[in-house]
Write a structure and sequence with these properties.
The structure holds two protein chains of two kinds. Helix content of chain A is 36%, strand content 4%. Chain A is mainly alpha-helical. Chain A has a domain at 5-42: Histone, subunit A. In chain A, helix 1 (5-14) packs across helix 2 (21-38). The longest helix of chain A has 18 residues, at 21-38. Chain B is α/β, with parallel strands linked by helices. The radius of gyration of chain B is 21 Å and the shape is globular. Chain B has a domain at 8-256: Alpha-Beta Complex (Amidase signature (AS) enzymes). Helix content of chain B is 37%, strand content 13%. The chains are: A mainly alpha, B alpha/beta. The interface between A and B is large, with 51 and 76 residues.
Chain lengths: 95, 485
């Protein structure tokens, strides 16, 4: 599957990555070559084979719904790029 | 008093009999790294103050007679394990300023055991790579040949042990990232069964494939480290609730009657002749110990590359969505709006290979392509798991090469991602199946090390270490030291 620059810009937006036109060209080439490699899969008959998501076929372990973690709010706020009064600050989103 | 190439077992004996203290040892290790690591670039950060405090605590524990086998031993962690109060970068600009407010389970278990963490080792950015060239902190040089890569992604850990700075270091292996650098740097490295070692606090790459393990000179040392690392962790929802044996007690078990499977697919075109010869010569050593060599087939091995390079980037694109410039890590200057902040923080913070894999994964998971890529890859993943299940009905373990060639030159593959991916042909299927596998030294080709790949059934780590240890009793490849030292 060959991707063009417009495909790359669409994927980049979904992935929240800024990509300029020159970079889009480079990514279109390298990602197309990766997809060519990956497309070997399409020739394989996988009818009736269950997808494997956990290599041990294990299910998500559940725990009792009880508070176990300690409150580390101050530690987590301290490493934020911008915070104020216990809130993470981002550019204004609501006028 | 510096003792490059001492093993953990030897250092533990010296600490126990009072030949030296952990403080003396730790001071020497840190001085040695400061003096020599400019040749290798194996460390991103040193944690000297914390290490000396840990060493003093270890010396007190040894004096009190309550030492554990790793107490007082200087070691290093791949800079992917979160260490509370010690910068943890994942080799990425986006986490350049990240000081974790919590400790990974693995690094906590080593602290509990009294081990001394001297610093954090270099790696491919977010553990994505096979050469340690994608690190924001620069390429790592192989101590066996400074023009060669050390392998990746745990290249800094491999170089730190191969350079003789520390006797052991942690690594993680998502598609070969412990075994391939161990092979390239003449080390013993084991990737345990998926779920054997806790992933809590390890910066995630591909969560259904990631697994941590030790990198050391000897199988005995790997057993000592795995004894600390391997246990059930309620904080990791995929941690295996399977009893952990003492990995040191079975190291000398007899191998009489052991059935070793050698897959024909591991010896086909693309394998360098010197690597094939060294690998077969190592396998033949086991016949003298009473093992039987059986030809087997893993028919879907080649499909491990496409399946892996869909599943791993897909999981990565999801895992790495958390780096958004809001709560921690890098944020771009002067964002115009929220979308601009996300897109520029991530574009400026991630390197090329990481961005490429995020986009491949985003594409594979996007509407209309999910079934053709992600679900298809998961079906092939089961075919690969089933191949191994059939093989282990016939044989006890499987052996072959770890890599198609010895360590390649720095810069030789970095322009072509697909060429780099093809290097992973012998390692990826292990991660897809979730079984344990290791690399142990098997000789040299033109001065560059070759590893023997030993693969086992689920939770057979003790058997793998036993098998590697027995080879290390009749060969001295693992004792060789690089001339650059």
């Amino acid at each position: 599957m060959a991707l063009n620059n417009a495909d790359i810009l669409k994927i980049a937006k979904l992935a929240r990555l800024q990509v300029d036109d020159q970079q889009a060209n480079d990514y279109a080439n390298s990602i197309t070559s990766i997809l060519d490699l990956v497309d070997q899969m399409q020739a394989v008959n996988t009818d009736g084979i269950e997808p494997l998501s956990n290599p041990l076929d294990a299910h998500q372990r559940l725990r009792a719904d009880q508070v176990t973690a300690s409150n580390k709010r101050d530690e987590f706020m301290a490493i934020a790029p911008k915070s104020e009064a216990g809130l993470f600050l981002v550019p204004q989103v609501i006028e | 008093m510096t003792m490059p190439y001492s093993t953990i077992a030897q250092l533990a004996k010296g600490l126990q009999d009072g030949s030296f203290s952990s403080r003396e040892l730790t001071q020497d290790v840190i001085a040695d790294i400061k003096a020599r690591d400019q040749h290798y670039n194996s460390f991103i950060s040193l944690s000297e103050d914390q290490a000396l405090a840990q060493a003093d605590a270890a010396d007190a524990r040894i004096a009190a007679g309550s030492a554990a086998p790793m107490t007082g031993i200087p070691m290093a962690h791949k800079d992917l394990f979160c260490t509370q109060g010690v910068r943890t970068t994942a080799g990425s600009k986006i986490l350049d300023n990240f000081v974790p407010p919590y400790e990974s389970t693995v690094s906590q278990l080593f602290l509990d055991a009294g081990a001394v963490s001297v610093g954090k080792t270099n790696l491919d950015e977010f553990a994505m790579g096979s050469s340690n060239e994608s690190s924001f902190y620069g390429a790592v040089h192989n101590p066996w040949d400074l023009n060669a890569v050390p392998g990746g992604s745990s290249g800094g850990s491999a170089a730190a042990v191969a350079a003789g700075f520390v006797a052991g270091a942690t690594g993680t292996d998502t598609g070969g990232s412990i075994r391939q650098p161990a092979a390239f740097c003449n080390l013993t490295g084991i990737r345990p069964t998926y779920g054997r070692v806790s992933r809590f606090g390890i910066i995630a790459y591909a969560s259904s494939l990631d697994q941590a393990g030790p990198m050391t000179h000897t199988a005995e040392d790997a057993a000592l480290m795995l004894n600390v690392m391997a246990q059930f962790d309620p904080q990791d929802s995929t941690s295996a609730q399977v009893e952990t044996p003492d990995y040191t007690t079975s190291l000398n078990d007899s191998l009489a009657g052991l059935k070793i499977g050698v897959p024909t697919e591991f010896f086909e075109a693309g394998l360098a002749a010197g690597v094939a010869e060294a690998t077969m010569a190592a396998i033949k050593q086991y016949e003298a110990m009473g093992a039987e060599i059986v030809d087997i087939s893993l028919p879907n091995l080649k499909l491990s590359i496409p399946a892996y390079y869909v599943i791993a980037p897909s999981e990565a694109s999801s895992n790495l969505s958390r780096y958004d410039g809001v709560r921690y890590g890098y944020r771009c200057d002067d964002p115009a709006d929220l979308m601009d902040m996300y897109c520029r923080s991530r574009a400026e913070g991630f390197g090329e290979e990481v961005k490429r894999r995020i986009m491949v994964g985003t594409y594979a998971l996007s509407e209309g392509f999910y079934d053709a890529y992600y679900v298809k890859a998961q079906r092939i993943r089961r075919m690969i798991k089933d191949d191994y299940a059939r093989a282990f009905e016939q044989v006890d373990v499987i052996m072959g090469p770890v890599t198609p060639t010895p360590a390649f030159d720095i810069g030789s593959h970095s322009k072509d991602p697909v060429a780099m991916y093809l290097e992973d042909i012998y390692t990826l299927s292990i991660n897809l199946a979730g079984i344990p596998a290791m690399s142990t030294p098997a000789g040299f080709v033109n001065g560059r090390p070759v590893g023997l790949h030993i693969m086992g059934n689920y939770f057979s780590e003790a058997k793998l270490l036993n098998i590697a240890h027995k080879l290390q009793q009749v060969t001295d490849w693992h004792l060789q030291q690089p001339q650059s030292l």
